[in-house]
## 1
Amino acid sequence: MCGIVGIVGRHPVSQRLLDALKRLEYRGYDSAGVATISGGTLERCRAQGKLVNLEMRLKEQPLNGFIGIGHTRWATHGAPTERNAHPHIIDGIAVVHNGIIENFAELKAELEETGADFETSTDSEVVAHLLAKYRRDGMSGQEAMHEMLKRLRGAFSLAILFQDDPSTIMAARNGPPLVIGHGDGEMFLGSDPITLAPLTNEVTYLVDGDWAVVGKTDIRIFDSEGNAVTRPRCTSTASADRVTKGDYDHFMEKEIHEQPEVIARALARYVDIAGHRVAPLSTGMDFANVSSLVISACGTAYLAGLIGKYWFERYARLSVEIDVASEFRYRDIPLSPHAAALFISQSGETADTLASLRYCKGHGLKVGAVVNTSESTIAREADVIFPILAGPEIGVASTKAFTCQLAVLAALAVGAGRARGTITEEEERQLVMSLAEMPRIMTQVLRNIQPKIQLLSRELSEFPHVLYLGRGTSFPLAMEGALKLKEISYIHAEGYAAGELKHGPIALVDEKVPVIIIAPHDRFFEKTVSNMQEVAARGGLVILITDERGAASSKLETMHTIVLPNLEEIVAPIIFSLPLQLLAYHVAVFKGTDVDQPRNLAKSVTVE
Ligand code: F6R
């Protein structure tokens, strides 16, 4: 989604704003722009498309000035054109905005009646016009800011420059995060601490409803009533150093290969590997005494939650209500205050997931956050944080965060099982031993399956449709495999429960549709093989992903068979994620798509 940067500096800011925008690229965007104040005048440069376009424009037409704001725009209202790119400038006021102004149509109509002439089709431009109107009415910048914020409805963060005040940036937050960075005689603004990491690690988070006047050496923060408030200054652990591709061609490729290492780190936190126990640390939630569990999340994080549901039900005998957060938040679900809730989010900023968390908190549930970003809003609002420790994930398609979410959920489910007495000490020992073997097995799998996956990917890249099937935890995994393929290669892909095949999807099967069947040799294997036969009987192209036992017992001819080592049931979905991720990655590479920043997608979805 959109990203915001700002610098009130001692040195020229244009290049630094551009560098900071580059650190926001991972969030997804389709145009970008910067504005500075130089010699008492606002200067602006904008470009459609990627930041290289803006960079080229800035070379032709450099911007001067020691104060400036910048923006990467992910279009919501209005096409991703240069004209719609931020900053919007009206009467010496420059505005960048992240989020959605829900009442913009009403405000626009009102402003047009008083003579405002709108240049763009964005919702954001109303902010600049409202401020300009209040200034014309005689208000100071600060007064105009306060009045303007009272009129906005929706989720937004804002950074604003007033041409007649070249030493201040105004900022506001109501939803999407905004961080103020403290420098040495300089101040910074950013959508997240990673943006600011090379500039400073000393940050202050604005909370919802806050607005701020940011000078070179001081900040003044106000709440929505206009009362001065203090927000703590803290040291962020975000680091920009780690955010490089290293020897890899894409962040996604690097993140796939980082999984053995990051899973080991996550496991070290949640399980006592030597003692073969779940670590007591992970019992921050009293699973022994909860009546049921509620899980909500979006996209890949939701699919991790769906696999978690199988584990919590099986090992802890806890019934789990799970839904995508965009539905969950509006379903008016009757909730027991004796239930516990888990919200899963890589970014920790997903608007629907945050709203669902607040809904559960409002109903008195104890709320846990399974997050990658421990400084995120979801983490800060939860009662208990379960960090997944995946490290920064830059590729828009989630890979290592997904498997780390699974590793954490698996450990929590086993811990819950012990706390509830639904698994024995010996069962816990076996399960923890299986989890502990994952980093080694992952390394081996990543090394061994690459050549085969590359071969298969080249063939698959020629097909317009692909089906994925699985049973048990392989069903959410089938959906995750399909999601990964469609989002980065733009091939239409669907994941189904294999048992649903005959209830509809089989109508799609013919010799032009590859069907990827995820079938570890588990208690569902025979049934999945029957579904595979149904596909083969209709000329469908079967691609079987199985383990050694499965490969030995399946006699069916396949287009390709990918064979993984034999695995315990609890780790199978985590290890089976690897071929699915690699497949999507290599197909996208063959198709020449933008792997790390696929079209129309954003890494951090801060609006609903
Ligand atoms: C897909 C993907 C998305 C995210 C979803 C939730 O590869 O990454 O589906 O999983 O947007 O994002 P977070 O986890 O940040 O809440």
Note: The longest helix spans residues 438-460.
## 2
Amino acid sequence: MAAINEATDLAIDGDIAVVTVASPPVNALSSTVRAGINTAVKQANESEAAAIVLICAGRTFIAGADITEFGGAAKGPSLRDVQDTLENSAIPVVAAIHGTALGGGLELALCAHYRIAVPSAKCGLPEVNLGLLPGAGGTQRLPRIVGVEKALQMIAFGDHVPAAECHEMGLVDEMAVEGQLLGDAVAYARRIVAEDRPLARVSNLNDKLIADAQVFADFRAANAKKFRGFEAPQAIITCVEAAVNGSFDDGMTVERELFTALMAGNQSKAQRHLFFAERQAWKIPDVPKDTELIPVESVGIIGAGTMGGGIAMNYANAGIPVTLIETSQEAIDRGLSVVRANYERSAKRGRFSMDEVEVRMGRITPSLDMNDLAEVDMVVEAVFERMDVKKDIFGRLDQICKPGAILATNTSALNIDEIADATTRPEWVIGMHFFSPANVMKLVEVVRAEKTSIPVINTTMQISKRIGKVATLVRVCPGFVGNRILAARRRVADNLINQGAMPWEIDKAMFDFGFAMGPFQMSDLAGLDLGWVKEESSSSTIRECLCELDRRGQKSGAGYYDYDENRTATPSSITEEIVRRFAAQAGFEPRDWTADEIVERLVLGMVNEGAKILEEGMAIRSSDIDVIWVHGYNWPRYWGGPMFWADLQGLDTVAARLNELAASDGDHWKPAGLITQLAAEGKSFSDAG
Ligand code: 3H9
């Protein structure tokens, strides 16, 4: 075996040349890898070999272009150069795939003449998740193999498609036996030589490129809601359309232009930021990699309401047995029937079989006796938000649970230090703040209390990963991180309606920014009377006035909006009159509010609170706040998160706007010290870590 460079080897196995890429962790196409493959394939062509196998060491085939190189100066051969070398090789090239062949990795494999894969492998073009499109011929070659409709689906959604399915579609030519990829690939290459098979070039295939304009129009229409606001899916459809309507070279030109535009745009910057932010969130500075992991093989959940039931599903889905505790048979029956209905809905949608519904239900054991939690490895308490109730439960858990059990609370608002102090083992107590519906929403805020031990933090983060969540570690403060910022946004929104902006103007601005709904639609959904006490209500806020009129949100048929029997919302003249009255009383002249200024104010309010959270050390890094808002509150991914939004504006601009608002609208707008400091240093939140 000869080393071509530090990432690539070339070995001649009789008549077969084996090019091996070894660039951990995912064999991304760095300049070194590109140069290595390019040279190795050329050298193999000059050798006695009759065919080439391109294979990767480690856990995966090439997982794509090296994202860390994006935005930097190009070095060495481009990916397209390497693709040309492969495609123009005088001897057949076989790409041997295990793990994942993704993005540029699959695009390179599409320039090999043949592809072989093990059953566990997956192929995909996931660039769309980075706000990009496949920029190395993927939009032109994939439809030539799998047809237009499948290609549209795969590229616009970034699906990772299992090898067997790829084989059926013709994307993979040959299946290898699991664990025997190299041997099978070499044997396959020999067979290709022996049978004198042609140097198959995907770019020459044209017979599957049939689709009329309607196919594209239908695809756009069917996915309009999912693609709303995103630039990349539209560009992808345009590229596949170009594949159908013109020559290969013309299609490549369209692809290159659109790829370059997306790469330079803010959406891709934002989505690449999130790619790294989501991976960074798992890294905790004072929790080293070798920290003890406490085994968690069984879990107790207290409370079978909406939250408790959803949390139980997460564990059951991951194969972890759950003891679900309630105080009455009726409550537990109701909770379990909701869980069952959720599972059956998923089965009906084809996500798993009806048998699987029973398997998962079988993992949840109901109980009315907390003593049944004596042997579980972890407890998640999910009862209603009252400190006395939680303290009582944790005091009892302290008596019941075995030493070494993790005691987690799902509180979204209460002081976990106080809850922990109700036990004699506060170092075992931690927060796991799930978001509703807990079986759907990806986010868990793991809340470390004052005395939580490092292994308990480590294990809770890891168990969150095991149950399919995205976790961020935060500290104890009112609302923790996500809800604290939500409250800040709410204050700005209320302030705006107090000045005469209409709730629907604000909601529309936030919808157009990319949220599924605005703050007042959210209130109507949740109920305006959350925390409202009729006897104490004194018409002193717009919300109080609405509640006093029994406009308590969707459930009462009216809130900020009016609702018809289908719960369709329309702006309410009653709300409008109340808003106008409040604004006039406070001395505000009626005026028009632009969507831009509404969005700016709401997001600046969030950013300023986020900065205070960072100053206080309640979140580890600004990108964690972005992850929280994307996964807990559906912040539009193409804006990267509130802190990234601020970085995009430039913190000097953010500081200046906050100072202007402080002068015109009150001191509550004063920029957090961190913003002022970073702006003065010419830095961004990302620079500050
Ligand atoms: C592209 O190809 C453009 C082309 O069309 C056109 C070019 C002209 N680059 O996710 P993990 C790092 S765009 C650099 O935790 P897993 C990752 O940051 C690319 N680094 O592992 C992490 O680092 P750390 C299209 C990368 O086993 C480590 O590897 N391809 C890249 O859960 C482990 O990652 C994609 O979008 C990369 N491409 O999942 C695929 N990929 O340890 C993106 C990963 O320091 N990658 N890293 O935190 C993935 O989807 C997953 O990483 C993968 C493994 C499924 C491969």
Note: The chain has a mean pLDDT of 96.
